[in-house]
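Subject: design request, 335 residues
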């Protein structure tokens, strides 16, 4: 109903008590912004473009507000042409064709950006990854056991990284490989990586360790089930005088400062809440609830931690969520 009223009448109640009204209504009754009444004029050029999957059903009144266009999957030939046209592409044509073939064979489809990311990922490790393994993080998860000790990255060399290693962290071939996979994903252009594994599979320790190994600060953000999209970015609080103010979260601080953030427990929050930061992960920008637009600093990176999807009722890895992260499956270390 909220969105329907905005589309039909250009009216919307804001969280701060303000009201958006149509330009006709605003010009008729006020003629100028009134800060006391907090009435704001909607721009005449305001338009809405909405995206939805074919399986989703829309409320009839809401559906009547849109003109629909059915977008089909890209033809493999178009994907191949787009991937091959990248100016810095170094992969052989046969490898590019294999990547495109793998993408086209996925029943639920895969985004064009994911195919580009997989190609860059393979370019970073041409001698250690196959096209199938390069596509795994973008269509499902790459299993650490499949690539233990095989990746090469530009992380600090062994002697230097040992100086930055926590004394309480014991490095193994498996943990080293996970850190290399994360570093390789970041170097291939991804801003966000997700570590998925059961409880006790060293996810938190690894996330903290690779941040320290990379010489950067990491903000820890523990998520909870009732969290909203607004709670991810800002929370409401009071100052010393009792006035209500916005407080930044670890995520918004990391965006602003260009540092790392560890999102602990992304399986706990709803898909709608998690996908509200999809634009941040893909393009590095986000609009805050207070109206501020943030652009992520060059050093911004996100490591998300989660438990594996369980039953059909707990399948939190929707196609929209899958496209946000570079997925890595970790298991408990053998005793």
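Subject: RE: design request

Done. Sequence follows.
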């Amino acid at each position: 109903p909220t969105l329907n009223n905005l589309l039909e009448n250009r009216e919307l109640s804001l969280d701060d008590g303000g009201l958006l009204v149509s330009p006709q209504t605003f010009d008729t009754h006020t003629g100028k912004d009134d800060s006391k009444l907090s009435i704001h004029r909607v721009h005449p050029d305001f338009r809405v473009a909405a995206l939805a999957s074919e399986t989703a059903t829309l409320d009839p009144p809401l559906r009547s507000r849109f003109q629909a266009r059915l977008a089909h999957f890209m033809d493999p030939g178009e994907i191949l042409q787009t991937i091959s046209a990248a100016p810095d592409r170094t992969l052989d044509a046969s490898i590019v064709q294999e990547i495109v073939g793998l993408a086209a064979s996925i029943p639920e489809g895969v985004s064009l950006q994911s195919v580009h990311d997989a190609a860059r990922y393979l370019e970073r490790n041409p001698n250690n990854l196959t096209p199938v393994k390069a596509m795994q993080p973008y269509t499902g998860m790459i299993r650490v056991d499949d690539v233990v000790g095989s990746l090469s990255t530009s992380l600090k060399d062994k002697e230097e990284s040992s100086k930055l290693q926590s004394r309480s962290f014991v490095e193994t071939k498996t943990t080293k490989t996970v850190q290399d996979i994360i570093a390789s994903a970041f170097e291939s252009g991804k801003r966000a990586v997700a570590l998925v594994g059961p409880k006790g599979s060293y996810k938190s320790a690894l996330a903290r360790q690779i941040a320290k190994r990379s010489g950067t600060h990491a903000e820890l953000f523990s998520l909870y089930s009732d969290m909203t999209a607004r709670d991810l970015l800002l929370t409401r609080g009071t100052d010393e005088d009792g006035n209500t103010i916005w407080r930044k979260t670890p995520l918004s601080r990391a965006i602003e400062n260009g540092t790392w953030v560890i999102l602990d427990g992304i399986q706990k929050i709803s898909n709608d809440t998690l996908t509200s930061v999809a634009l941040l992960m893909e393009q590095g920008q986000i609009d805050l609830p207070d109206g501020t637009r943030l652009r992520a600093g060059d050093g911004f990176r996100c490591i998300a931690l989660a438990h594996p999807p369980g039953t059909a009722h707990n399948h939190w890895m929707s196609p929209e969520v899958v496209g946000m992260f570079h997925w890595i499956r970790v298991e408990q270390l053998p005793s």
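The chain has 15 helices and 13 strands.
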